[in-house]
Design goal:
Isopropylmalate Dehydrogenase; 12 helices; 11-stranded mixed sheet; 49% helix; alpha/beta; homodimer
């Protein structure tokens, strides 16, 4: 399989990105070709540092980088030679099957949506974040692609999240919850109340509203929300986990007895750090575009990039997109007679 | 001072509520009168259990309780003799200066808004949640009163949050951040982009967008968002904190060495538990209504109710409402010439 990596985007640029590419090539023999898209001299310098001359690497030179201050759609129009745009072009031309970017999320979403288009039946793509629950993992969609979503977009996210959970995460009949501000059916915003009705009528395994409270107690396998709320949830979770570990460290340093205790219990702290570390979960698939796009964390380390490339490889193997097209078209067929009956 | 407690609302009903009332009466001599509103026999039974015959208590009988499945506005119209409505009536008649409720949040917001009305210049009230940051505390507004907010509502929340932070939390010139999904000025939803412009033009100490990432690292003293997002943040934080402590406990039990470590470090865990425990922060003031209303957590323990009554007492002492009216009117005066100039 062939994957294109935006080798410039992200808070730390080529060092972490190329470092992750090197790790991934060592770990995943199923990658036949890895395009590193960006400034050739910088990429070559990093490869030299890692003593890497893997023949599966092909550098694709590009002269521009999307800045975090650039507008998402603007960046596609104005920076035609940006690393992310050029990487998407490789997918468009059929030279790569997937793109991975740790850069400006909005720019990656805009470039893939404009150049590759959405899948038939999908209006807006959504980012699926994989998160740890008490005993397992769950998928939160949309984690930030679409911050002004309409009800039909959320319905499509529910379908795409279910398909991804079934085919990639291995859940047989994924349960779906709608993120709201009360678990009772009638609670929520105008938007979620409308989506609730659509989900209730659908063939999905819909379990009703869920609240922030329930998120990590294994309530459902797919959590549906708009991209603004999803992005806030994702970043808030990171923030709370980081803060608690920091406060705990501070408290553990306050006496010699506590420090001794911390030393004895250090393996437990390491396990928690691993469980709450986004790097382990790799990138987040952007579902609904006609191609495969994996969004990696802006602050990705080499390990995170390696795992994002693993997620890209899994998505290629599992053929998620044809399944999405099939399920959405089945949903639309069941809706058509209902809608004409309601008219 | 005189306070009315809804003695029926909340997940655990009279036992925790009356228990909290008893604790508060012991701790706060400044409370002259505490109305316990609800079913007299149940309230009396709880008081007997606590051997409490404090003369400052007055039971106000009511025959109905708002259920979690009731509609918010509906509950005010249909359950005229509910404990929360009757408690609000006491404030309306001037017999109490504040109401505390751990019941259906929407019902408490609706009852106070309909019966007491909003303050001059305020369109919709907002819930101010007090949360711990790395070295201090901050105020998140709106934490769930108004799930379909418009830009002007968020602007009013920023003003009210600033007033509360100055007069109750003691911040001299509270810094204000707008919760968004990117720290750059141009990022956000249609709603937050509009609010950004309004905040930028205002005299508030506005610091720009903040993200979920930054929440606990002391970025700002007032965080502004709509009630849907705020409620999700609040509940997600609780959920993450609970999950991490649970996972940690599980990991610490996995070997005798880790258990010994946990024993030595137990004081550190207790400190973290206290810092992340909502019970310590008490209730959340509903700002913008013409009266004082404190929203307590649905699952409030007696300790949480005691602290909610403390927050009510502080709000009465600090005269927050006249300050809100003054600041909003000052803001509106500066906006009037600007708006006519823009026309």
């Amino acid at each position: 399989m062939k994957i294109a990596l935006d080798a410039m985007g992200g808070d730390f640029g080529p060092p972490n990105l190329v470092g992750g590419a090197v790790l991934a090539l060592r770990a995943y023999p199923q990658i036949d070709k890895l395009f590193l898209v960006g400034d050739t001299p910088q990429i070559e310098a990093e490869l030299t540092k890692h003593h890497c001359n893997d023949r599966r690497i092909e550098i694709v030179h590009s002269t521009q980088v999307v800045a975090m201050t650039d507008g998402a759609v603007d960046s596609v129009r104005r920076k035609k030679d940006s690393s992310v745009s050029r990487a998407v072009d490789l997918v468009k031309k059929g030279e790569a099957a997937a793109i991975v970017s740790a850069g400006h999320t909005g720019a990656a979403v805009a470039a893939t949506t404009i150049k590759l288009r959405t899948l038939p039946g999908i209006d807006r793509p959504g980012i699926a974040a994989i998160m740890p629950s008490e005993t397992n993992i769950f998928c939160l969609i949309d984690a930030g692609a679409n911050s002004d979503a309409r009800a039909e977009h959320l319905m499509q996210y529910a379908i795409m999240g279910s398909v991804y959970s079934r085919h990639v995460l291995g859940y047989k009949s994924p349960s779906v919850g709608l993120m709201s501000i009360g678990e009772e059916d009638a609670k929520g915003s105008d938007l979620t109340k409308e989506v609730f009705k659509m989900l209730k009528r659908s063939a999905l395994n819909f379990r009703g509203n869920i609240e922030g409270h329930d998120l990590f107690g294994d309530p459902v396998e797919v959590v549906v929300c708009d991209g603004f709320v999803g992005n806030v949830i994702l970043k808030t979770c990171e923030s709370v986990a980081t803060a608690i570990m920091k406060w705990l460290k501070h408290e553990l340093m306050r006496s010699k007895v506590r420090m001794a205790g911390a030393f004895l219990a250090q393996q437990a702290f390491k396990a928690i750090k691993k469980k709450t570390n986004y790097e382990e979960y790799g990138g987040m698939p952007l579902l609904g575009v006609n191609g495969i796009c994996i969004i990696a964390h802006g602050a990705s380390t080499a390990l995170a990039i390696k795992n994002a490339l693993r997620v890209a490889a899994e998505s290629i193997e599992q053929q998620v997109n044809p399944h999405i097209v099939e399920e959405v078209s089945r949903y639309n067929e069941t809706q058509a007679p209902l809608e004409s009956a309601l008219r």
